[in-house]
Amino acid sequence: MTDGQRASTGAKRRKRSYRDSSLGDRIFDICNHTFLVCLMIVTLYPFVNTLAVSFNDAADSLKGGVYVWPRDWTLENYTYVFNEATILGATVISVLRTVIGTVATVFFSAMVAYTISRQEYVLRKFVSIAFILTMYFSGGLIPTFLLVRDLGLINSFWVYIWPGLIGVFNLIVIRSFIEGLPESVIESARIDGAGEFRTFISIVLPLCVPVLATVALFTAVYQWNSWFDVFLYNSSKVELSTLQYELQKILQNSNATASRTAADAFASSGNGSSNKVTPLSIRATMTIVAAVPIILVYPFLQKYVVKGMMVGGVKG
């Protein structure tokens, strides 16, 4: 039977099954599909609206009424954002931070998770409790800043990596997943003469791809969107600034000048030649610029994310 014949047979079976279903089942299906469509619209509308505002003339957007389609198309908002001299360098730093930070966090978190998942490790409970306590109690902003300073990480790229190298939540999720793996697989590796590190690299890591992809996505989103640590530790070094921090400065500058240019923006909107930007248009443009990389990456990790969250949650 060809693929076309199989598809035709499957479609006929679905139609027959739908005809044979009861009235209650049909009503449920209609209500279920209606609810899901409404949920999709509610979920997508904020992003579509933000995209429309980012491509709409800034002065025209102040009038309101821009919903899902730009009323006055323009690229002025994006031109204003990307004309900043520091944007290109900040984007490179953000990409490096996201890639290096994600790989390092996933690898070392998985290594620690594997260690405390071993029954033969006598300090596993003590170490686990010590990690979990950090989720409820922290030293605070000032002690953290003093520690980072004493470690010599101020005005350094590695301040983006080392302080958050081990995420406790990620650690718990990975440990729960590892504890659900068949112990016989690990025992067989040991019988073949593999040490702990070789077992971790060759056996455990390949089996943990779903949960590692989940943790990688969460970590990448955090690293990509983070800007406050740049403000605290590297605000004096422009070459270490990130894209999010530079976008934040652009937004602050637009807010500072909004009161002086609002009247001019309204006045110039009538002749169709406005080159003004507003905080509203800048916020929309920044949102799109910051979200697009994550949106492009997520489809490739979606199947792993769903599987990793389900299995990790059940085993936890």
UniProtKB/TrEMBL annotation:
<keyword id="KW-1003">Cell membrane</keyword>
<keyword id="KW-0812">Transmembrane</keyword>
<protein>
    <submittedName>
        <fullName>Carbohydrate ABC transporter permease</fullName>
    </submittedName>
</protein>
<feature type="transmembrane region" description="Helical">
    <location>
        <begin position="126"/>
        <end position="148"/>
    </location>
</feature>
<dbReference type="InterPro" id="IPR000515">
    <property type="entry name" value="MetI-like"/>
</dbReference>
<feature type="transmembrane region" description="Helical">
    <location>
        <begin position="160"/>
        <end position="178"/>
    </location>
</feature>
<feature type="transmembrane region" description="Helical">
    <location>
        <begin position="87"/>
        <end position="114"/>
    </location>
</feature>
<dbReference type="GO" id="GO:0005886">
    <property type="term" value="C:plasma membrane"/>
</dbReference>
<keyword id="KW-1133">Transmembrane helix</keyword>
<feature type="transmembrane region" description="Helical">
    <location>
        <begin position="27"/>
        <end position="48"/>
    </location>
</feature>
<feature type="transmembrane region" description="Helical">
    <location>
        <begin position="199"/>
        <end position="224"/>
    </location>
</feature>
<dbReference type="GO" id="GO:0055085">
    <property type="term" value="P:transmembrane transport"/>
</dbReference>
<keyword id="KW-0472">Membrane</keyword>
<feature type="domain" description="ABC transmembrane type-1">
    <location>
        <begin position="91"/>
        <end position="301"/>
    </location>
</feature>
<dbReference type="Pfam" id="PF00528">
    <property type="entry name" value="BPD_transp_1"/>
</dbReference>
<feature type="transmembrane region" description="Helical">
    <location>
        <begin position="280"/>
        <end position="301"/>
    </location>
</feature>
<comment type="similarity">
    <text>Belongs to the binding-protein-dependent transport system permease family.</text>
</comment>
<keyword id="KW-0813">Transport</keyword>
<dbReference type="InterPro" id="IPR035906">
    <property type="entry name" value="MetI-like_sf"/>
</dbReference>
